[in-house]
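Methods — Computational structure assignment.
A single polypeptide chain was analysed. Its primary sequence is given first, followed by the predicted tertiary structure written as structure tokens.
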Amino acid sequence: MEKFEINILGCGAALPTPRRLSSSQIVNIREKLFMLDCAEGTQMALRRSKLPFSHLQAIFLTHLHGDHTFGLIGMLSTFGLLGRIQDLHIYGPQDLRRIFQPQIDYFCADSPYKIILHEIDTKTMQTIYEDRSITISTLPLSHRVPCCGYLFQEKPTPRHIRRDMIDYYHIPISQINNIKKGMDWTTDDGTLIPNNRLTTPSDPIRSYAYCTDTTYRPQLAELIHDITCLYHEATFAQEHALLAKKTFHSTAAQAAQIAHDAQVGRLILGHFSSRYKTEDALLQEAQAIFPNTILAEDGMRISL
């Protein structure tokens, strides 16, 4: 299968600590890199990941709080120093241009590449990026400022043609793609060979949702139903549920309930408050509701 990989650069909440940077991830799909949030220290974490800076296609910001954006302008400046020439698209909520365009004009005025800002509507689900292999859509979230998550979905791939069938029926190269798309094959003597004998099923479609920061939002489950993997914030344990509600964040139990209701394949908890010396209690709380739950870790790499 083609690469679909989640690289967690930082998974802490507002305060970076020696154990955890604040929020940032790289989604690597077929060696195209897409960044989710860009907290302070992101470019150093990106260097440690050994992912190539030049493969970064776009940056998607969930919201404009500092613990999700303070690393952006420094990283954009670094790209210029490294000689990037490919346009870079940045997507984010309203006020993206008001906040970042003056900084770009000042700090990146001589950059050899173009930085293109896209303000998005965080209140509706919409597709904002698409290429031959994936679509990226917004997921409305509920936070103290306009905020959205992002859903990465692979497009269906053709069936796999069997090499032995190519040789046995002398299928010409010009017809291989048609057969992968579902066409049957007729031999020289008129015998019809059904497609399911010539091919094997296409790879399963994979999907990934990134949801932070948000209060508990049950309707989110409908938008991400049956996805492969969900990253959901779990800033607090259930004992701090009132604080979570007050600050528009979620508990680990609430994140697990979303995963359970959406019937996702796997849940990754992240955006942990620095008040917790370990996140074991958060994990236990979530696994009691949704067993296939893991804790995010800085530097973690997850293949879907």
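Note: The chain has a mean pLDDT of 94.
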